[in-house]
């Protein structure tokens, strides 16, 4: 009986394989609209090619099939969202999700095209419940929402080699993802570059983040992640924020340059490591450790101003705008911090102490740091680690050199 059932199952599978529609190649030029071309993809998936041209839309383009790749002819394939009621340009979503919360689509990809919007449109690309989603070489700009907005795209989302600019919200917004890769993208003049929340295992490496109206990277309720080798410059807010129970995150080998507020803000982060980063021209703080942050390591970083040698600074002490002045700051500890290792860093040319606290802290070990020319504008240059006297702390073996 078991043998008979086995062969019947094989026969049924063979019949299904013969009758199921195979994946197809769809040339969008042969269809009356882009939506018609997308609708021509069967459930088994396919490749949709969109030739160069300007394609104006007023309603979202719906992608409803798995195993589907949408490819343009580079930036010359330009999808222009004319919607002024907050609708996205693309919606990638299982068609049965409203009635089946477990519905998922697998392996939807977009590459080599431009998607632009306007300040009254929504997201550039909104994706929900797409597993192994992949964006490559996509230009996404001028949307009223975020450039790419992913919700519960849990399994292995990837964003690579895209340019994401001038969006009113985030460049990339990720909610509920894991094993995330965001690599080698350019973000410019969005409100925030990237927001990742309620997720884990974010790898954000080799990105250029420039000129943001708000903050650079915001990570919330996320753990086990790494930000490395990123250039994050000129945010009106803060370069990197870790908040809402972040833990086990490494921030390493990033250049954190020229921010009106701060460099890295550990608002609520535990067990995190900051190493081999360069902080220059951060106006209020280079690193802030919030009262809800514990057991963190800050080691091997450079905190500096625009000193270029021979007693010269690249930028003046005063300028027409704050962004034009020479500036360097150290590490700010809020009262209540418990557990911090601050060792092996270089602090030079700062207007602040190397590290200072706003109240009582405990379990802080500060050692083997080099301090040159800190508290430049202060009459009292003697206290370079202004940590509250109470609590169990240790400050020792730091080399301190004050300029005359």
Automatic annotation (TrEMBL):
Keywords: Signal
Periplasmic copper-binding protein NosD beta helix domain boundaries: 101-241
Pfam families noted in UniProt: NosD
Keyword Signal set for record: yes
Entry keyword Disulfide bond: no
Stored InterPro entries: NosD_dom, PbH1, Pectin_lyas_fold, Pectin_lyase_fold/virulence
Signal peptide interval: 1-17
Protein name: Periplasmic copper-binding protein NosD beta helix domain-containing protein
Species of origin: Prosthecobacter vanneervenii
